[in-house]
Amino acid sequence: MAEVKEVRVPDIGGFDNVPVIEVLIKPGDSIGKDQGLVTLESDKATMEVPAPFAGTVKEVKVSEGDEISEGGVIATVEAAGDDAGDAADGDKAPEPAPAPEPESAPAPEKSPEPAEKDDASKAPQPAPAPARRGPENPPVETGAAAKPGDPPYASPAVRAFARELGVDIRQVQGTGRKNRITREDVQGYVKHALASGARPSGAGAGGLELLPWPKVDFAKFGEVEEQPLSRIKKISGANLARNWAMIPHVTQHDDADITELEAFRKQLGKENPDVKITPLVFQIKAMVAALKKFPQFNASLDASGEKLILKKYFHIGIAVDTPDGLVVPVIRDCDKKGLVELAEELGEISVKARDKKLGPADMSGGCISISSLGGIGGTKFTPIVNAPEVAILGVSRHRMQPVWNGSEFVPRLMLPLSLSYDHRVIDGAAAARFTAYLARVLGDLRRTLV
Ligand code: CAO
Predict the structure, then answer these.
(1) What residue's CA is closest to ligand 1, atom 36?
(2) Which DSSP category does 14 fall into?
(3) What distance in angstroms lies between residue 345's CA and the mean position of ligand 1's atoms?
(4) For the chain, how long is the longest CA-to-CA vector?
(5) For the CA atoms of 313, 248, 370, 289, what is the dihedral angle to 10 degrees?
């Protein structure tokens, strides 16, 4: 019958009374040779003690928080068949092991390779390995204590666990002592990523390698007040962040000469005193004409990102500013509605939005959006595409400008247009044509009849 042996702490570079910060085994566990048993943490380094032989854990002699030194018993292990011979030496005085390298940075991250798990020679190694390395003293893995700017602080076992899950350890916020990243932190990160629909952001996952959000105690610098974000801000914020991060945006700027259009709008306003006819309804009509001429703008990528869905309807989203945040109700069938009808509907949805009476149906089905800041001011801006739409038109404040007509400068009312588009679907040349066409239509609405 295989013998039960004590496994002791090997030479750990002269450190004494080193705290056990993680116990990686429990009674009954089948362990492989070189598998991590415990993680120790001195003031300078984190070290994982590997099993000197394979077998079954009988008893674990240490708990988290205990302090141990070289020679201290970690566990008793019943050696497995082939390792029984090696194990016979397991209770010998520990052989010298490579000294931890307290000043070295943690071993670099490796891409997850399935073979790596079982191949101790590929595990991160402490830098110089001067000592004789036999079966009874496999390398002690170390990770240096974190310094500002260092890679994150986690034991080799936690790093390996993160690699297995395809998690970039740098994304994980540590909650352990001195902000050490624990196994639970990695699990929590994955749970959160799954719940929010994001993928773990390891190199293998092809995700963004973003730094964690800075945690700042602003009160240290002066008086502050906390204000919870509104529900709308939380929802729109999450959508805006996804769209900004996932869509390769480009913004095309142009100016429309709306001198004649503005005169017509004023005239129409006089004829319809009960309705507020703002420049936006003309922009909606011009947008319909442009979508008809350039159908790839009236489209969405399907979820696989491999197909474009072209739409034969003309529903336009209008960004509305409310005290609680931005909402985008949709005006349907804009191609079938006249300017006055559109103006009425625009007035209704603006009121509904500001009274918080919009339902999900009012905000779905849009083909493209218009965000008009013209009533407020500004010369240009870069709106964020409202996925799964492929473009959004930003409109800024019109202003009278001197325009060269070929022989002289003349005063013209110019409207700045800023079209942001999804460059995966729309080429720059198409965007320039689309925006120029929009400007031409706004310059002369008769073009919508052509
Ligand atoms: N240039 C100059 N004046 C303009 C203009 C422009 N491009 N567009 C509108 N105006 C004028 C209007 O004619 C109106 O003038 P009067 O008060 O003299 O009649 C005034 O500005 C206010 O217009 P409005 O805002 O009431 O109406 P609208 O149709 O232009 O816009 C709406 C409606 C709902 C889009 C708007 O109220 C709104 O919420 N805009 C903000 C959208 C937003 O936040 N976008 C940002 C999204 S990204 O964060």
Answers:
(1) 320
(2) T
(3) 15
(4) 106
(5) -50
**Percent of the residues in the chain that have a pLDDT greater than 90, as a whole number:** 57
For residue 368, which of 264, 438, 277 has the smallest C-alpha distance?
438
- 353 CA to centre of ligand 1 in angstroms: 14
Tell me: the pLDDT tens digits for 390-438?
A: 999 999 999 999 999 999 999 999 999 999 999 999 999 999 999 999 9
Domains of the chain by range and CATH? Answer: 4-140 (2.40.50.100), 141-226 (4.10.320.10), 248-449 (3.30.559.10)
**Is residue 423 annotated as a catalytic residue, yes or no?**
yes
Question: Which of the residues 249, 253, 315, 423 is marked catalytic?
Answer: 423
Give the pTM: 0.62
Q: Residue 24: which pLDDT band, with cuts at 50, 70 and 90?
A: confident
Other C-beta atoms closer than 10 Å to the C-beta of 349 total 21
For the cut 80, the answer to whether the pLDDT of residue 112 exceeds it is: no
User: Please, are residues 41 and 18 in contact by the beta-carbon 8 Å criterion?
Assistant: yes
pLDDT at 371: 98
For the chain, give the number of residues. 450
Q: Which amino acid is at 210?
A: L
Specify the 3-state DSSP secondary structure of 444. Answer: coil
Q: Is the Cβ–Cβ distance between 30 and 56 less than 8 Å? A: yes
Q: Compute the mean pLDDT over every residue in the chain, rounded to the nearest whole number.
A: 82
Distance of CA 236 from the midpoint of ligand 1 (Å): 20
Cis, bond preceding 388 (omega within 30 deg of 0): yes
| Gap from CA of 376 to ligand 1 centroid (Å) | 7
Question: Candidates 280, 355, 384: which one to mutate for ligand 1, based on the most atoms within 8 Å of Cβ?
Answer: 280
Residues 329/318, Cβ–Cβ less than 8 Å: yes
Only one residue has tokens 């009849």, namely 449
Phi-psi region of 294 (alpha: psi -120 to 50; beta: other; left: phi over 0): beta
pLDDT confidence of residue 208: 72
Ligand 1 atom 46 nearest Cα: 371
Burial of 120 (0-12, 13-18, 19+ CB in 10 A): middle
Residue 339 CA to residue 278 CA, distance in Å, equals: 10
